[in-house]
Structure formats: structure tokens, C-alpha cells
Amino acid sequence: MEKQVITSQQNKLIKHIKALENKKNRKIHGQFMIEGIRIIEECILHEVPIEYLLYTEDVEAVQGGRELLERGIKKYKSYEVEKKLFDTLSHTETPQGIMAVVNIQDHSLDTLNIKEDAFFLILDRIQDPGNMGTIIRTAEAAGADAVVLTKGCVDPYNNKTIRATMGALFHIPIIEVNDNNTWIEVLKKGHVKLIASNLNTDYDYTKVDYRGKIAIIIGNEANGIDENLLHYVDLSIKIPILGKIESLNASTAAAILIYKAVEHKL
């Protein structure tokens, strides 16, 4: 039988992937698109729920591409796409010839495991995709138990965010909330200490006891943490600035605080 290759932009799978470029549609379908050898390998290795694969013959010329495609075709619905059409779907300058539609994993505050040494990260209105992805990657690397995103944060399933996570979002619960009262209530009931990164304090981050149940809050790149949230925190801390700049990049500050928080576990 002759191999079928998708060539039309009117194909329902192509239209579906194009629709997933929009945050609203990602929410409606509970899906997002990923592309590239490395991140799809990560998905297959850790059995992330892939809905289907799209590929071009170019993938076989990429290191590891042939093997990945063979594994993918055996495990998931897979469709070959004309290269020119595939390139219109890609968000990279040099497409590797393979992409996948992935189902968003369902995580909520109801399933949060507040163990004795729980460590959560709260991101308050982080808006840069690169910062968001890098912080999620760092949180996962340090063994954080979950990342909570407040209303106003950039979509974690944005293409730029996904690339910046380097696959980390598949290994750590990402919980999006619309109301700050909900996550505050859950963490307070669980006796989790809320620690805010805040420029308007003199309390040095190195002086804090990070043992026990904690949640570190990182604020918006331009405006910091919502003033209303600061009423609920147990402690505000600051990374000293020794030079002439006013502050650190949000992802840099987050990395410093995240690893300081888990230092006692190393």
C-alpha cells in the first residue's frame, strides 16, 4: 500500500495543531504541542501521554531521529507530513522533523502532597516565558514538590516556556490557580511556611532556617510580589545586591533561593 503523506493545511490534524498555538484552545483541548528529538525522547522515556506524532523524512537525518521515529511509530498514532507544511507548524529556525501533541497532565491543589519536608515554589505573575521555563527547570532539578502559578503568569505550555524547561515540566506538578486565597488556604492548613522574595526587607536570605514545610514565592519581573500576598507570608527575605544594579533577573534570584532552600538536604 502506498504511504499516505499529509499535504493539505485543511487536514484536521494540521488545523488542530495550529489551533493549539492559542492558549484558549490549549485549555479547551487539554493539549499542547512539543517538537524536537530531545523533548520527545523525554516524553517517551517517562511515558508522558502523547496523543499523536507528526514527522517528515528529515527526522531520519538527525542524530537519533531514526531510532526515535521507530519507537514512536510502534507506540503512538503517527503521521508523515510534507516538509513545507511541517515547517509552517514549527516554532524553531531549524526544525528537526518531528513534533507531538501531548495531553496536559492534571494536577491540582487537591492532590498536593504536603509531607514533612515539603518544598513548593509559588510564581506570582511571572510573565517572561524564558524566566518561567528556567525556574521550572531549576525547581525540578532541586527536587521541589510542585510549582504553583498564580493568575497572570505566562502560560507554562507556551512554546518558548516549554523549550526553556528542557522537559522538566513533565517531571514536576505544575498547578495553575485563579484565586490566591485557594492556595494560601491549602498551604496554611498544611502548616507550610510562606517565604517571600522581597526587595523591601533587610532580612538576608542566608539567615533563614529552611527546614520543614516551606513555600518560596517569586514575584513579577517588574513589580515583585502582589502587595496583598505579602500580608499572608511568614517571612520576607532579600538577596543582597553588592553592586550598582537594583535587582536580579527573576530566574536568577529563584535559582539562588531554591538551592539555598534545599542546601540542608544535600
UniProtKB/TrEMBL annotation:
GO terms for biological process: methylation; RNA processing. Keywords: Methyltransferase, Transferase. One of its GO terms (molecular function) is RNA methyltransferase activity. Pfam families: MRM3-like_sub_bind (PF22435), SpoU_methylase (PF00588). GO terms for cellular component: cytoplasm. SUPFAM superfamilies: alpha/beta knot, L30e-like. The keyword Transferase applies. CDD domains: SpoU-like_rRNA-MTase. PANTHER family: RRNA METHYLTRANSFERASE 3, RRNA METHYLTRANSFERASE 3, MITOCHONDRIAL. Belongs to the class IV-like SAM-binding methyltransferase superfamily. RNA methyltransferase TrmH family. This is tRNA/rRNA methyltransferase SpoU.
